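Reply to dn_fold:

You asked what the input looked like. This is it:
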Amino acid sequence: MNRILDKYLKDIRKCLPCSNAVWKDISRDFNVALSTFCDENPDFNEHLLIDAFGTPQEMADELLKKVPLSEIERYKKIRLNSIIFISVIIAMICILSLTHIYILENSKSIPINTETIVIVNDEVLVSSSDELKNNKVKE
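and this is what came back:
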């Protein structure tokens, strides 16, 4: 039976746009009424609970009347800001990951510049890897 009651309370809580502290305050009287109901009906089921108190949405609407409008607006603003903050963090992680992958992929194709000293008939020729490639192509 406790599972039915827990699910009912959880469903009510999902319908309420308020903080946990406010939920605890407004649910005190309701918890007393639930305790009385459970004492009077030890073998209750979900239908009996809904008949006595209404659907979770109806009960949430009833409890919401006790919450000041400023608290509801404050909660909605905090929740929206939290969603935006988390979205920005996720976007930054994605951008940094893609940048890292791009850098790794491009670093594979960048040739290492080397300098080669070639001695031909007592002449010293110094050239970079790019110049050697060009000389080989010309020959």
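The radius of gyration is 35 Å.
Hope that clears it up.
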